[in-house]
Design brief:
This protein is mainly alpha-helical. It has one domain. The protein contains 10 helices and no strands. The longest helix is centred in the last third of the chain and has 31 residues. Pathway: Porphyrin-containing compound metabolism.
Amino acid sequence: MNTPQQSPALSRFTYPLAIANLIAQIGIIVTGGLVRLTGSGLGCSTWPMCEPGQFAPEFHAEMTFHPIVEFGNRTLTGVLSVIAGLLLLSVLLDKSRTQAIKRLVWWPIILIAVQAVVGGITVHVDLHPAVVGIHMIISVALVSLSTVIVYRVSPRERADVARIPVRVKQVVAALGLWMLPIVVLGVIVTGAGPHSGDDEVGYRFSVDPMMMARIHALSVWVFVALLAVLAFLMYRARAQSVDLAPRPLTTGFWWVVAVTALQGAVGYYQTFNGLPWVVVTFHLLGVGVFAMVTTNLVLLTRPTVATRR
């Protein structure tokens, strides 16, 4: 009879759970965005209850859809917590996993708890854009973290990256680091724009939204320039018959190019067309996917890490 520590039944689901966790982390960015874009940020007037003495919205003829949207987003947080908890157990109960990965899988649970607290603060400070922005930045960090976990628990064979030129690795690392200013500037643009999350909440960042949009766009163009440099270095390496672990790295690179181009197109469209909420929703989805593919590209240039003893 197997001991609980060996638990082969649950450990077989580690990789699917890691994938589910990543998808849910991206999904909650979208649902959180919908809360803001539909003006449902204060659909529940308090936290953790929806209303004083009521955990869920009370259905009646006069109610609007706002409490349903807000409570739906909170419910997804609960689902996400269950997925992250099962992922944690599947790794901790698997003796073949290293201590490094066992420490890593604690972080989704920890940051989800932090997110719940920040969400509560957001309600109590009437959707202050700085607090809402912190909420978003943590969500993007969770997507990157979840991408690392997927990579680390994946049963796929790792490509040998030892022969990848140092300059290629350096530019990829710069791309990964440059995600931070892109996301932060995007948060500031949003915090200066019209979508506060509630029609009665007027306070936004006191900066020119168009100026911040241009600065944000400039940061993306810096990212595009780094992609161009990377493309040149990869082409030169191939011309010199250097093995760049061709399938994983090339595929990862083109995914980043495709997502960046699509995000740029959506970003420019929404800016010059009055920020329609449907388009902004797709842009938020793109933020999560952008964080995922960029983090994955960075991982593809890092040395192989053994996930099992």
